[in-house]
Automatic annotation (TrEMBL):
Keywords: Signal
Keyword Transcription regulation assigned: no
Signal peptide: 1-25
Superkingdom of origin: Bacteria
Gene3D superfamilies documented for this protein: Aldolase class I (3.20.20.70)
Protein name: Glycoside hydrolase
């Protein structure tokens, strides 16, 4: 071992220590000329403030990189990179669907960071040709596998990380977590006739009519989630609703009765909350101004938006406990959390506090998030495949496949929500595309979610959706990712 360390130093890889791991991971570390240094089981590299360079083949699959240009929006190309970049996967914003801090190249080489220690300076830099430079600061560790079997390497990485982070894969879960889910979001958007109207359509009667339609279809009963628009907008703006997690009495004169109605119709109440955001005019900010944190940067360099992130130094756990218990006491058993695309390292503390608060209230509450990252996985029950637009301007099928892959591979041992059959762009949905999207979810691990009501797109959509839901209901109902090596 000492001779290998000396050789690595001479080769210019700096001071890197190595630790043995499972035989599932066999690696061949190379220098810049592509010469093999060694091939054995030692694949964890411990950094001491140095860099390593490895040969890679583009495109590089970067599951953490969910930031897109307007031209890429709606597809999946921004996960597959062939041009030069420098990324810190811990400090990028998680815009929509951000996975683990790993990279897999076109030939199956696999690289992954293994600790949050030194995350500020843990970076991947690609020269756009054939070299990936990895900054491995003191305290950081790197998993490196050049065997060419990227998925097996990723499984090995997950298995090691689950032990390190004390992530116990779910084996048995509350029955209702596996149920089909219905969510109001895309139906709100479909019925909207003008900008932002969908935030104002959600009422007690809206929920009743929606459920009655599901019952009329003869679909299996399951969870019923109220999405964005059930809460207060104190200054009249939608943004002031962030931090105002109190039911709007004009829309819901008695929110508890709405939850009771959902239960009486045979469904489990669920609720969307955009928890990490807060507005200065929100109810929470008025009562607890210390919750106000950094601003979200606006579209111009010299402009700040009027929404802020929660202050990570405030008592987020206490705030989360207050919010979750308020609705748990009204009968809500599932929370759909919108993590709102903040910097991942900042979101992690918010994520942990919210999850821990919910589980201390009732361990059976289902907590669903959209950050399927191994460092977040301990603090999540379900991850959703999140926002897809069936718009022909985009490679939407690629997006469906990649979002599922990231959920399945970056959150091992947790459930998957196959989010929004038909997608979120209700103006782009046709019968053909609705059915194509539905077909892509068949035989996938995860529970189905219906949002926009399928009768808008024809009788065939109603019938095919029903057949899919009942096949799921009568089947194994396997929602858990098994993307790790099980003992």
């Amino acid at each position: 071992m000492s001779s290998r360390r000396n050789f690595l130093k001479k080769a210019g890889l700096g001071s890197l220590a190595m630790a043995s791991v499972s035989s599932h991971a066999i690696t061949e570390l190379t220098n810049l000329n592509g010469q093999a240094f060694f091939q054995n089981k030692e694949t964890i590299l411990k950094g001491e403030g140095k860099q390593i360079h490895i040969k890679v083949t583009a495109p590089l699959f970067c599951p953490y990189h969910s930031l897109s240009t307007p031209a890429e929006k709606g597809g999946n190309s921004y996960y597959y990179l062939s041009t030069p970049f420098t990324h810190n996967p811990f400090t990028l914003e998680a815009s929509g669907m951000s996975g683990s801090p790993v990279i897999k190249d076109a030939k199956g080489k696999f690289i992954g960071f293994m600790t949050m220690h030194g995350f500020e300076n843990s970076t991947y830099s690609y020269d756009g040709k054939k070299t990936l430079t990895i900054n491995v600061p003191e305290g950081q560790e790197l998993f490196l596998d050049e065997s060419g079997n990227g998925d097996e390497a990723w499984k090995a990485y997950n298995t090691i990380m689950m032990k390190r982070l004390n992530i116990n894969p779910y084996k048995q879960i509350p029955k209702f977590w596996q149920d089909v889910e219905y969510c109001t979001w895309s139906e709100q958007k479909y019925l909207s006739t003008k900008r932002h109207e969908h935030f104002h359509l959600l009422t007690h009667d809206f929920v009743k009519k929606y459920l009655d339609k599901i019952i009329e279809y003869g679909y299996p009963k399951g969870k019923m989630t109220l999405d964005h628009g059930w809460g207060m907008f104190p200054d009249g703006s939608v943004n002031s609703g962030f931090g105002s997690w109190v039911p709007n009495p004009e829309k819901f004169p008695n929110f508890r009765k709405t939850m009771d109605m959902i239960n009486e119709k045979g469904f489990t109440p669920g609720l969307w909350i955009g928890f990490p955001k807060i507005h200065k005019n929100s109810l929470a900010a008025q009562q607890y101004p210390e919750l106000l944190g950094n601003f979200i940067q606006g579209s111009k360099a010299d402009r700040k938006d009027d929404i802020q992130w929660l202050n990570g130094k405030s008592d987020i756990f206490e705030y989360a406990t207050e919010v979750i218990s308020r609705f748990y006491n009204m009968g809500v058993m599932k929370f759909k959390i919108d993590m709102s695309y903040n910097t991942k390292s900042d979101m992690l503390d918010i994520h942990k506090a919210l999850y821990k608060a919910a589980k201390l209230i009732d361990k059976n509450i289902e907590m669903e998030f959209h950050v399927p990252d191994i460092f977040f996985t301990k603090y999540v029950d379900v991850v959703r495949t999140n926002d897809v637009w069936l718009n022909d301007k985009y490679n939407w099928k690629g997006r469906v496949k990649t979002h599922y892959e990231i959920c399945y591979k970056s959150a091992p041992g947790r459930g998957i929500n196959l989010d929004h059959i038909g997608g979120n762009d209700t103006g782009a949905i046709t019968e053909k595309k609705f059915l194509e999207h539905l077909e892509m979810y068949k035989n996938k691990k995860g529970y189905p979610l219906v949002s926009v009501l399928p009768h808008h797109f024809g009788k065939k959509c109603v019938e095919k959706t029903g057949a899919y839901l009942w096949d799921y209901e009568k089947g194994a109902k396997n929602i858990l990712s098994d993307f790790y090596h099980q003992e």
